[in-house]
């Protein structure tokens, strides 16, 4: 090995520059010069690690940062993230209109406060909050802050109970699966709570098995966090089973252990895709739930929500009073200031999409996940996520079902595809490293992470694609082509016969050896129903490719690496009738939106809805009316959805008695 020494890149760059001491940076010169030249000069004057003494022109500053951020990945192709990256034009406009508002300025921005409270009510209803209860909740910066608050409420409640019983209250612990997102461990470490990680493995689907959690629980356990939608594989943990086992534990030992559901992703998928699943406030042991508005809530980064089933679950010590204009607001957040725009954007989605819109998007995401999963499974990969596998109910019904799109026919989970190279592949090509697929996809623009499975199964590497709303069917087709081309390139295989990779169980094989031998590897696509109810523009990729189109056999679709990409794109040419239906659906969609808008407007006059919202929700009609009538005056006593101070958990501590309100300082 050669002896090497550290190279200072900045020094090398500096030495390579032409005449660094003779730069033309005169202010007068710049104004008359060609813009791109002046941009370079301005940028060159700006120091990198200290604030410039004098500023550069705004255009140059913009261009400098604009160009530099071009080095970032393309958010549309960032399949690593659960975080939403696209909103319609009207939402973007609303966000820009409200971007300068601070949510904490309650009296300055009363409308933002009311919209916030209505969001809480709508989410409470979605999560099946008990109608008689006093649900309480707040927006947060994301699920992380929301989880901190949920955990703190647990900790305080446990401490007070222990104090009251005259027991030690210094060694709290919290129980969750080792598949937890980092926010859960952060909570434990930042707030001095011992994290008890329940090991997971392939046999538990890489998520916590509630039976395995029970032995970790003792009198110092402040609660169990059940994850609805593991970030690793998208699997749901079983909230109902956890609750049943904790009921049983309580009967046996008297320990009353509450559940917090981390629904960062799942709490905006389950209500729409799996209406029969019990996971929310309809499970009485669930005290609190968090979600990320910026994941499947379909808002840009910067928004989370946390709700408690009743005000009494929040200890008085945790609540700060904000006094202003003779009225009192209560606050339980870590951050004081936060932008109002994401909250308004969330309400935009609630109004624009409604329950049905969210459901359609969830169904579409899950359909696309199935397509990707099947393509991978039929070739070189093993798929660890489960949303493409028929459920117990689905196995019996899929054959005869009219709507094969119904997510309840399949195993429940997030629209996530986790996969790895199959054992067979790895045995045949031991030199191929799975991580290379990540790097090579990146060169094509796709961001698909390769990482280790959670503790307990950490030697397994997983590639993961989050199938978000923006990952359209067309893009998935491109992704499949790219993954297969890359994998085959890695195999380095011109001579190798790939027929052996055709899954003998796959319909392709059943079609007859001729197809399988001629164009392996192959996989079968199920007929994919074409849905045009989404108002997202179709990707240009869906229009017929201008070059000769490869016509695959009806059932079998092949991706030999020698075929040009344009040809493989032909896999989903739409027939003329399909396009006609599509064209007809456009005016229909327009009328549908008009109708929705009409329904929305009339709903302000008659708040009663067919879904029977709970009483606290109905009460919002008056605040909505305030907005509509343009009576833009903050009327705290008239706004509903406000917490009732007397309902907060009892403060016995000195500190709580001493809390003397809270002066606002913005
Ligand atoms: C994303 C995620 C979090 C953290 O959420 P942020 O909104 O990014 O703070 C926590 N838990 C799970 C399960 C997640 O998917």
From TrEMBL:
Its EC number is 4.1.1.15. GO terms for biological process: L-glutamate catabolic process. Residues 635-648 have a biased composition (Basic and acidic residues). It comes from the Eukaryota. Its cofactor is pyridoxal 5'-phosphate. GO terms for molecular function: glutamate decarboxylase activity; pyridoxal phosphate binding; transferase activity. Keywords: Decarboxylase, Lyase, Membrane, Pyridoxal phosphate, Transferase, Transmembrane, Transmembrane helix. The chain crosses the membrane at residues 580-601. Pfam families: Pyridoxal_deC. The modification N6-(pyridoxal phosphate)lysine is found at residue 295. It is an enzyme of class 4 (lyase). One of its GO terms (cellular component) is cytosol. Residues 17-44, 634-666 are annotated as: Disordered. Gene3D superfamilies: 3.90.1150.160, 4.10.280.50, Type I PLP-dependent aspartate aminotransferase-like (Major domain). Belongs to the group II decarboxylase family. This is Glutamate decarboxylase. It comes from Mycena rosella.
